[in-house]
Amino acid sequence: RPLRAELALQAAARGVPVLHVPGRALDALSRGRPHQGVCLEAAPLPLQSLRDAEEPRLRHGESGARQPLWLVLEHIQDPMNLGALLRSAYFLGVDRVVATRSNSCPLTPTVSKASAGAMEVFDVYSTDDLQGFLKAKSAEGWEVVGTASRPEDVEDVPVISCSEFRWDKPLIVVIGSEGEGLSLETQLQCQQMLAIPPGRALHPGIDSLNVSVAAGILLHSICSQKRRHGD
């Protein structure tokens, strides 16, 4: 209750109207999802256009020699997965997240909740031409790596363990959809595919990780090299 009172004071100080309503009204506003006694009605948060984007600025204390790291999402459709991906990307220091505009989850309240608020402070950009975008970044000298849950299904692109990958240039990590993974067209724009080796022989049908969990493992494996600080 003291925290809700403080939130009400902060809202009033910013000119945001505060209404005190029964709990069932908040249940309806949040469509039955947990709300912790407070709901904020806000305009939808749009995906940002890459064409209007400025290059990410270095944060305080970071070396100019650091290598940028972008996360690209192809057809992520589950809002809980998208929120978890944004939370991990923000926590681990990813500079920019780019999502395909078509066949992807919009930035909904559920995404924001699953991201623990990261969606509100971390812009998500969109592209209508993923393969063209990746091709252009490769031409600029970026390394583009995809992710493979089943290495045996990948053709014409080298597959290595994430622990073998070395980060020494501007990098884009591309994550595919929950069910299908990366499309063949996107795979062919990747210089390498990264895989997470399992810790045991896997039972059929339990042979892959949740997409947000896999992304967290891959990003941590890459970021732990500390090459972004010029090491």
From TrEMBL:
<keyword id="KW-0949">S-adenosyl-L-methionine</keyword>
<dbReference type="GO" id="GO:0003723">
    <property type="term" value="F:RNA binding"/>
</dbReference>
<dbReference type="Pfam" id="PF08032">
    <property type="entry name" value="SpoU_sub_bind"/>
</dbReference>
<keyword id="KW-0698">rRNA processing</keyword>
<feature type="domain" description="RNA 2-O ribose methyltransferase substrate binding">
    <location>
        <begin position="6"/>
        <end position="46"/>
    </location>
</feature>
<keyword id="KW-0808">Transferase</keyword>
<comment type="similarity">
    <text>Belongs to the class IV-like SAM-binding methyltransferase superfamily. RNA methyltransferase TrmH family.</text>
</comment>
<dbReference type="GO" id="GO:0005739">
    <property type="term" value="C:mitochondrion"/>
</dbReference>
<dbReference type="InterPro" id="IPR047261">
    <property type="entry name" value="MRM1_MeTrfase_dom"/>
</dbReference>
<dbReference type="InterPro" id="IPR029026">
    <property type="entry name" value="tRNA_m1G_MTases_N"/>
</dbReference>
<dbReference type="InterPro" id="IPR013123">
    <property type="entry name" value="SpoU_subst-bd"/>
</dbReference>
<dbReference type="GO" id="GO:0016435">
    <property type="term" value="F:rRNA (guanine) methyltransferase activity"/>
</dbReference>
<dbReference type="InterPro" id="IPR001537">
    <property type="entry name" value="SpoU_MeTrfase"/>
</dbReference>
<dbReference type="InterPro" id="IPR029028">
    <property type="entry name" value="Alpha/beta_knot_MTases"/>
</dbReference>
<dbReference type="InterPro" id="IPR029064">
    <property type="entry name" value="Ribosomal_eL30-like_sf"/>
</dbReference>
<keyword id="KW-0496">Mitochondrion</keyword>
<feature type="domain" description="tRNA/rRNA methyltransferase SpoU type">
    <location>
        <begin position="69"/>
        <end position="220"/>
    </location>
</feature>
<keyword id="KW-0489">Methyltransferase</keyword>
<dbReference type="Pfam" id="PF00588">
    <property type="entry name" value="SpoU_methylase"/>
</dbReference>
<keyword id="KW-0809">Transit peptide</keyword>
<dbReference type="InterPro" id="IPR047182">
    <property type="entry name" value="MRM1"/>
</dbReference>
<protein>
    <recommendedName>
        <fullName>rRNA methyltransferase 1, mitochondrial</fullName>
    </recommendedName>
</protein>
